[in-house]
């Protein structure tokens, strides 16, 4: 455990994201569903990262008593350089009002036909994953990661690592010169 004592605000009420923050820090965040400012289904790295940053900044504005705002965003990107493959990845932005850090989580290949369907628009990944896993609200549960790995990796796991990465510079003395 992190031994974290700061008051954290989280820019969503999504269950998997909240559980990731609790698991990463031992702290129960104050949750507000703030806008991401990007499309509901981000399709590039930049959009996804910007969504995480916007959520972190908006939630600290909404909850000024918190010391750090956290924005967690899932998105898709197409790698046309190395693999010609769609990837799902998860980002955490951490903002304390003056410093911003990102934790970029696992990049996980998803079936290209799903990525192409997302690019055409009109639906979001969670609807596809809900149908494939015969559930509802898969984005609040183990998510696409859980479906494709048969539960060996979950959405909470992936965000947990991204949260730890984004918060470490605020926490560790190795970054004091920053
Ligand atoms: O409640 P919020 O915080 O908005 O969370 P979200 O899951 O709806 O939204 P994100 O912005 O994190 O993700 C963008 C879209 O991709 C979907 N998505 C991302 N990762 C997913 C996963 O692992 N399983 C299912 N859907 C996923 C998600 O549900 C959205 O439709």
Count of the domains: 1
Distinct bound molecules: inosine 5'-triphosphate
Strand portion: 15-25%
Just give the CATH class.
Answer: Alpha Beta
Give the biggest sheet.
Answer: 5 strands, mixed
Order of helices and strands: EHEHEEEHHHH
Overall 3D form = globular
Tally of contiguous helical segments? 6
Look at the helices and sheets and give the structural class. Answer: alpha/beta
* Percent range of helical residues: 25-40%
| Low-confidence runs | none
CATH architecture: Alpha-Beta Complex
Task: List the SSEs and their pairings.
Elements (H helix, E strand, L loop, with lengths): L7 E3 L4 H11 L4 E2 L13 H18 L5 E12 L5 E11 L4 E10 L2 H9 L4 H9 L9 H7 L5 H17 L7
Parallel strand pairs: 1-2, 1-3
Antiparallel strand pairs: 3-4, 4-5
Helix pairs in contact: 1-6
The structure holds inosine 5'-triphosphate (ITT).
């Amino acid at each position: 455990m992190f031994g974290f004592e700061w008051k954290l605000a989280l820019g969503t009420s999504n269950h998997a994201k909240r559980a990731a923050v609790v698991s990463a820090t031992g702290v129960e965040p104050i949750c507000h569903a703030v806008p991401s400012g990007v499309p509901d289904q981000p399709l590039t790295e930049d959009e996804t990262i910007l969504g995480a940053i916007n959520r972190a900044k908006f939630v600290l504005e909404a909850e000024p008593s918190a010391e750090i705002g956290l924005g967690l965003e899932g998105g898709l990107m197409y790698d046309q350089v190395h693999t010609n493959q769609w990837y799902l990845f998860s980002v955490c932005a951490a903002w304390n009002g003056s410093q911003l850090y990102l934790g970029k989580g696992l990049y996980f290949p998803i079936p290209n036909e799903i990525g192409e369907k997302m690019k055409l628009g009109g639906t979001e990944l969670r609807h596809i994953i809900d149908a494939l896993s015969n559930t509802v609200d898969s984005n609040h549960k183990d998510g696409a990661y859980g479906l494709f790995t048969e539960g060996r990796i979950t959405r909470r796991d992936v965000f947990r690592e991204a949260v730890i990465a984004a918060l470490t510079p605020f926490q560790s003395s190795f970054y004091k010169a920053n």
